[in-house]
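This section describes the prediction task in plain terms. A model, or a person checking by hand, is given the sequence of a single protein chain and must write out its three-dimensional structure as a string of tokens. No templates, partner chains or ligands are provided. The sample shown here is typical of the held-out split.
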Amino acid sequence: MLQIRLALVVLLVGLSAAQAQMPVPSVLESVLAQVPDLKLSDGRGALDRAAAKGEGPHAPAGLLLHAPMVLLGAKTLQAQDASELVSWMKAKGRAVRIAHAGPWSASLDCALQVQDLLEAKLTLVSSANTSEALDKLQSGAVDVMCEAVPAVVESVRRGDILAFVLAADERLPALWDVATADQAGLPLFSATSWIGAYTASANATSVSKALTDDITSKLADVGWSVFAQSYQTSDAHKQHLAAEDERRKGRFNESGLPVAP
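The expected answer:
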């Protein structure tokens, strides 16, 4: 159930609660129907902030799904592999246009991390949402972008955009030929997209029991992994929200915009 919604969320990573959400994938509909009050979020929306404070009708029920981010490039780039891309970005600096999905988005968070690792300031190009940012990348209006693997795996497989560096230590079956951070010369590059469950009555563990092996397999095919049961608790979810909030304080101001150097 969680995973089904996660497939939907993968397309929504970084969107605020006020922005329109994608339709729920049909593979998840049966699971969602079993828990009518279930809501999913990636920790950046009003739902998460309210729940973290103990406010609102939905409480953190546990962490459900997670997937690594991936550094993407437009087809117009001349770089042949991850190492060439990293060298090119370091050399070009401000000339490199990196897209993101707006304040508090996972893609902006990841873009700022890339800047830090490269020790080079890039040109940040904001978009209203993830879809708009990916459109810019596909058209060549920007050069690079970070996004969660599930949100872009099909576009990469079709060749619409290029995948260069996985923000993880190990290769991912969904994009097996994409270099890891260490292989690309960015050993500290680590960024994860995650989805948490919020309910008025159930908990993540009970929700995850509705996930069949078939659903899990389909989610894994696009890059999602299910959190271990020890993370599928309200306490674990609250602790994760607090840690994420603390981590972002050093990177964003109160509006979710980059902190000036």
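For orientation: The CA atoms of residues 122 and 169 lie 24 Å apart.
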